Structure formats: structure tokens, C-alpha cells
Amino acid sequence: MYAALKSIGAYVPKKVLTNQDFETMVETSDEWITKRTGIKERHIASENESTSDMGVEAAKIAIHRAGLKIDDIDMIVCATISPDYLCMPSTACMIAAKLGRVNVTAFDISAACTGFIYALAVAKAFIESGMKKNVLIIGAEKLSAIVDYSDRTTCVLFGDGAGAAVVGATRKKAEAITDIHISADGNYGDLLMTPGCGVKKPCSEQVLEEKLCTMKMKGNETFKIAVRTLTSDVVNILNDNEMKASDIKHFIPHQANYRIIKAVGDALKMKEEQVVLTVHKYGNTSSASIPMAMNDIWESGRLRQGDTMLLDAFGGGLTWGSALLPFAGKSFK
Ligand code: ACO
């Protein structure tokens, strides 16, 4: 039995924060943000909209587009670094309950921006081992809840949203996920972290005062490692599968920074039309960014059944990964 990606869906909250909005909040400019990141705007969830609420909306679309019913789903995996609750219950359990699915395997994955590729790998392994048939994978983030809006070095970067896909069992090798690489190096954990509110530094007055429950990032160091690691990772996955960059129809990188995407795309000699870009309109939505970008090209009719995709991501942990796969769902009409 092989595993195939059968559908894609996404949810984008309505409220938009533009670079001009940030000019009134912190010492920054549209020019700086655009030049250094490529971001023009990002979407922000409403106060009573949680990560699981957004995940549910994306999931409903993905299940419908796969031609399935919720009861056909036998496992739900949610990748997130902004879960509804700090320790429990998991956001995947909340999503399962809101979808009306009980007696189902459901759990979260914490791999930051690489979360969706980790979830894809887990789904592939469960399906190929014969343990599951239809796995719903979700990347959902309410990063606005863990951003310090007085810190200009991070607040302009992040947005909210969710993406979901159904990974299903197939006997057709042509539909199968070709390969996935996932990796991590915890020695660089301090480059990107939320230092407070875990057991190491439990919530206290000092933690709240210093806003230690929000994301802190050594951006420039992270940038350099991201470019180096992503380039070698995508070269390796292509070589391992005896493929060339020109064999890829859609290169869908994690949307953190236009300059990182451009550097990796240039190193691979990718043509502009191969590289999927959504960072200008969504910012960095961590684990949701790849499925949101995939959904964008599906809804615009660019992503067709059988198209070869190369995904790659890099994030806190540090974690990174890449995936080679055909799109096995129906094309948009
Ligand atoms: N507006 C204006 N100036 C700013 C802003 C801002 N919003 N933010 C930083 N600056 C200033 C800095 O203070 C610094 O000023 P100084 O030279 O006087 O000290 C200057 O701009 C340059 O700062 P750098 O941090 O060197 O800027 P850089 O070009 O590296 O861009 C950025 C910063 C956008 C964060 C970039 O480093 C980056 O994208 N890093 C990688 C992010 C990433 O991929 N993270 C992993 C995924 S995220 C996840 O897993 C959740």
C-alpha cells in the first residue's frame, strides 16, 4: 500500500494587518519590511477564533475535496506551535471533537514551521504500514497570540491561518508520495523559542512582565542556517530520487522570507514560474504556510492532478525537511 496526497484546503482569517498598520505600532517602515522579508500583509484571527477553529474550517474543505465523509478519517494529526491549550488537550483532539469524530487517533506535532512536512511523514508511515487508511493532516496557527507586538524584530513577520490535506491509501504507485526527509538539531534551540510558560520557566509575574511567552528569534543567525540547510536538503532529496530541479512543477517552500526562498530557488536554478510565493499576502504562518500556499495554487487552477511538487521547510527546534510528491487529488474545475 502507498500513501497519496488526495486533497488540499485552507482557511484564512478575515482581518488584515498591513505594513502601514505596523508603522503606527513600532519603529518600522513598509520599505524595510518589504525589502527584508517580501511581506506586505498578514491575516489575523479574531479574538474568539482559536487555532482549532481555523484548523476545522480547513479540514472540512480538505475532507470534502477528497470525496470523503468525516467518518472515513481514521487519524487526525495537527502540526502547531500555537495550540489551543499549553499542555492538553491537544489541538487535534479539539479539531476531532468539533468535526464530530470520536474514537479516532488524534495528536499534535510540534516541529514549528516544518510541522506540516513532519505530519505528512507520519501519515505516510501509518498508511504504508497498513495501520491507517485516511489521515487528515493539518497545519494551523494563531501566531498572533504568541507574538510580542512591541518587538519590531518579530511582530512584522507572522500571521494566522490553517491548511489541511487528506493523505490516503492507494495501490497506484504513480500517485504515491515519493520521498520525505525530516531532520532536527536541538543544539540550535535557542535561536527561535518561547522561553517562558513551559516547565523550565513556569508562568510568573516576571515571565509575564518580560513577555517570555512570546516568540524570540535571533533572525540573522537563523537566516544563514536556513539558507544553507534548505539548499543542501533539497539537493539531497532530488539526488536520492535521481531527479533534477527541472522535473519539479511546483516548488512550495515554507513562506518565512522572500530572500530565503529566492536564495534556495536560485541555488537550484529554479525558474520563477516553478516557485510558489504567498509570503507577501500571508506572512509567516509557520506550520500552516505550506498547505496554505498549496491551496492557493490549487484554487487558482495552477496545481493539477499528477503535478510533481517539492516542499521544503525550516523552523524552530531547529527542524527542517523536504518532500517530493505528486498531487493525487482532483484538479480545480
Ligand atoms: N523594522 C525596521 N528595522 C528593523 C526591524 C523592523 N521591523 N526589525 C529589525 N530591524 C533592524 C534591526 O534592529 C537591525 O538594526 P541595527 O543594524 O541597527 O542593529 C537591522 O534592522 C538589521 O537586522 P537583522 O536582524 O540583521 O535583519 P535581517 O536582514 O536578518 O532580517 C529577518 C531580519 C527578516 C528576521 C531575517 O533575519 C529572517 O527572515 N530570518 C529567518 C527567519 C526564519 O526563517 N525563521 C524560521 C522559521 S519561523 C518559525 O519556525 C516559527
Kindly describe this structure.
The protein has 333 residues and is α/β, with parallel strands linked by helices. It has 2 domains: 2-173, Peroxisomal Thiolase, Chain A, domain 1 (3-Layer(aba) Sandwich); 179-326, Thiolase/Chalcone synthase (Peroxisomal Thiolase, Chain A, domain 1, 3-Layer(aba) Sandwich). The protein is built from 11 helices and 13 strands. The chain has helices at residues 19-23, 30-37, 51-65, 91-98, 115-128, 152-155, 205-209, 219-240, 258-267, 279-282, 289-299; strands at residues 2-11, 15-18, 41-44, 75-79, 105-109, 134-142, 160-170, 179-184, 192-193, 216-217, 250-253, 308-315, 319-326. The chain has a 5-stranded mixed beta sheet with strand order 1-7-6-4-5, with helices on both faces. A 4-stranded mixed beta sheet has the order 8-13-12-11, with helices on both faces. Strands 2-3 form a two-stranded antiparallel ribbon. Residues 28, 32-33, 36-37, 112-113, 152-153, 156, 192, 219-220, 222-223, 226, 256-257, 260, 284, 286, 314-316 line the site of acetyl coenzyme *A.
